[in-house]
Amino acid sequence: ENVLTQSPGTLSLSPGERATLSCRASQSVSSSHLAWYQQKPGQAPRLLMYGASRRATGIPDRFSGSGSGTDFTLTISRLEPEDFAVYYCHQSGSSPRTFGQGTKVEIK
Amino acid sequence: QVHLVQSGAEVKKPGASVKVSCKASGYTFTNYFISWVRQAPGQGLEWMGWISSNNGNTNSAQKLQGRLTMTTDTSTSTAYMELRSLRSDDTAIYYCARDQPYYGSAYWGQGTLVTVSS
Questions:
Q1: Which of these, A2, A26, A23, A27, lies nearest to A96 by C-alpha position?
Q2: How far is A81 from chain B (nearest CA, A)?
Q3: Of A2, A14, A19, A15, nearest in space to A103 by CA
Q4: Cα–Cα distance between B2 and A96 in angstroms, integer?
């Protein structure tokens, strides 16, 4: 099983600041199969990025993704109030598919 | 527009089974997979499995094999997830999602809370 480890567990930042979220895989992941999801309380997950660096439809360009192999990053260039949420990375390149444990971005 | 509408909350006793439905609309059902993901209270996302709506092929998490059955009814564009021999740690919100390899899951159901309690 390809274990995805996200860091940090919690990120305390102020609106307007830059957020950098990390996702490290125990085995190499094809970039084509690395996605990021955002989840707010009481809501279903929302697809942000697919193919490691491609924004899903309607996702603002302050969100960007990068990485390859075992190290991937989600960056939010300037946090907006609606960006405070939990973020999950997800790999679908090998079975079983796996999610990271999540990074909570909270208001400082 | 694409919609996935799931069945309502369920309360089950340990050892029972639950079957959650996920009715799709707004797209050609057989062109996409359906994935199932669950989330225990206060916990992260757990991938359960996927089913091809075209041919019924499935792939599921090993820990659930033997208890999990995923099916589709193409005549009603509905996917089903049945989990048997329920335990208290199966208490979770269960989500279905339209799945497209490489492109991720852009559409999700609203979630179905399954509570397992004696």
A1: A2
A2: 22
A3: A19
A4: 27
Tell me if A88 and B37 make a contact (CB, 8 A cut-off).
no
State the amino acid at position A35 in one-letter form. Answer: A
B22 within 8 A of B34, measured Cβ to Cβ: yes
Tell me the nearest-neighbour CA distance from B100 into chain A, angstroms: 10
Write out the E strands in B17-118. 18-25, 33-39, 45-52, 58-60, 68-73, 78-83, 92-100, 104-108, 112-116
Report phi then psi at B62, rounded to 5.
-60, -35
Question: By C-alpha distance, which of B77, B112, B84, B83 is closest to B96?
Answer: B112
A51–B contact, CB cutoff 8 A: yes
How many C-beta neighbours within 10 Å does residue B97 have? Answer: 25
Collapsing DSSP to helix, strand or coil, A45 comes out as coil
* Phi, psi angles (nearest 5°) of residue B97: -150, 145
For residue B102, what pLDDT is reported? 85
Q: pLDDT tens digits for B25-84?
A: 999 999 999 999 999 999 999 999 999 999 999 999 999 989 999 999 999 999 999 999
Q: Considering only CB atoms, which chain B residues are within 8 Å of A50? A: 102-104
- Rounded to the nearest angstrom, the minimum Cα separation between B75 and chain A is 26
Q: What is the pLDDT of residues A16-35, one digit of tens each?
A: 999 999 999 999 998 789 99
> Does residue B100 carry a pLDDT above 90?
no
